[in-house]
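Researcher: Let's do a round of design. I'm pasting the structure tokens now; please hold your answer until I've finished.
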């Protein structure tokens, strides 16, 4: 079987795919990651073959403007899908050409990578969606016109034009199946044709420092903050100083993991940090999944990667949401009892201190986090999911009013 992978060029989205892609390779199948050049290094770093499609332009420039207008309640804001449509347009020609020459049996796509359903339909091969978190692209945040979540009559004209230019259909749903990396307790309801898969944490390659290999003398609390949050929501969204003010003097070992393997802490954010609390450790380029196993609590803005990694390790999670999917994620975490959601703004350091104290020292959040981890461990592993992909690839797809297009697994 040949699996063509179309991630959005966002590192955290791609990282969630890696365990399943390796499971496919270990089972003897071919995997090829096709994404914008900015993601190719991450794929290679994960030991996966990759090819660059499109150009190095970043959709963030357009998305930042739309995001801020959306958050400000601008009634004239255009479809939030537009930056992702432009990204798909830059990749489509290369991706369709690659697909016609490489001839995949199946396309595995990020639900926000619009070129995924386009190339699958243009080639007549099955499309499988891989959810890297709660399915808010389909059910929330106003991404009207998403090719995996909106009726074609509501699609932006630019998206319809893009699909039709490659002979692809417009349809309510292209995917023959959805693989869901989040457990039911952390997922929005109403997902049809779905199989839950165990979330296996992967946050990029990294080296375990000596201090992290030793058990902490005090409860270890990790504070992480997605670098994209400040980019999208502006400097006022960098709430780490308020979080640190709440934790100053608390009897914990404080680890600030404010950058991932591929992204450095920006200069402005570093300046906003100011003086760190005594004994706090600022680390860079250290994957979150290496830090969390020894932690008593996590504080984050509620990105899906941090959310899944905390749940998989059974770590109570204090979420300080800012934008996009984060408020939804925070509510889901709080509803399980495995953490707390701090919505009030301005953020009160006293609220942070109370929530982290409860998360790190009270038995109830730890017990709920343990139950969440056990729920995840009970799900099929990526390796156990590969036969499903094999069957979907062998079955092919049926296009209404047209031919059945199947492809034999290799």
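Researcher: That's everything. Go ahead.
Model: Designed sequence:
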């Amino acid at each position: 079987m040949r699996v063509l992978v179309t991630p959005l060029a966002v590192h955290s989205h791609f990282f969630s795919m890696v365990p399943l892609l390796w499971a496919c390779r270990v089972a003897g199948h071919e995997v090829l990651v096709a994404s914008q050049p900015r993601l190719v290094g991450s794929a290679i770093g994960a030991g996966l073959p990759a090819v660059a499609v499109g150009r190095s332009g970043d959709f963030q420039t357009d998305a930042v403007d739309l995001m801020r207008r959306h958050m400000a309640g601008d009634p004239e804001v255009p479809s939030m899908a537009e930056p992702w449509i432009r990204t798909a347009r830059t990749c489509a020609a290369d991706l369709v050409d690659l697909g016609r020459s490489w001839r995949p049996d199946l396309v595995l796509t990020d639900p926000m990578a619009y070129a995924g359903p386009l190339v699958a339909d243009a080639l007549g091969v099955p499309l499988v969606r891989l959810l890297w978190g709660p399915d808010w692209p389909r059910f929330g945040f106003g991404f009207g016109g998403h090719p995996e979540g909106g009726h074609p009559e509501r699609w932006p004209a630019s998206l319809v034009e893009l699909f039709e230019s490659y002979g692809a259909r417009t349809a309510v749903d292209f995917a023959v199946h959805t693989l869901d990396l989040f457990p039911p307790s952390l997922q929005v309801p109403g997902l049809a044709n779905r199989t839950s898969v165990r979330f296996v944490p992967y946050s990029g390659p990294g080296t375990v420092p000596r201090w992290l290999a030793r058990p902490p003398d005090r409860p270890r609390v990790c504070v992480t903050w997605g670098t994209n949050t400040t980019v999208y929501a502006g400097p006022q969204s960098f709430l780490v100083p308020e979080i640190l003010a709440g934790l100053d003097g608390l009897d914990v070992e404080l680890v600030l993991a404010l950058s991932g393997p591929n992204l450095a802490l920006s200069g402005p954010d570093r300046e906003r940090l100011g003086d760190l609390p005594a004994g706090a450790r600022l680390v860079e380029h250290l994957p979150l999944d290496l830090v969390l196993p020894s932690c008593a609590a996590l504080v984050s803005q509620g990105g899906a990667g941090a959310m899944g990694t905390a749940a998989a390790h059974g770590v109570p999670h204090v979420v300080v949401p800012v934008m996009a999917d984060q408020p939804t994620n925070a509510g889901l975490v709080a509803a399980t009892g495995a953490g707390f959601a701090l919505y009030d703004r301005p953020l009160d350091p006293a609220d942070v201190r109370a929530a982290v104290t409860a998360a790190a020292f009270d038995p109830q959040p730890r017990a709920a986090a343990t139950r969440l981890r056990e729920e995840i461990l009970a799900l099929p592993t990526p390796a156990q999911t590969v036969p499903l992909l094999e069957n979907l690839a062998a079955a092919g797809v049926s296009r209404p009013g047209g031919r059945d297009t199947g492809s034999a697994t290799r």
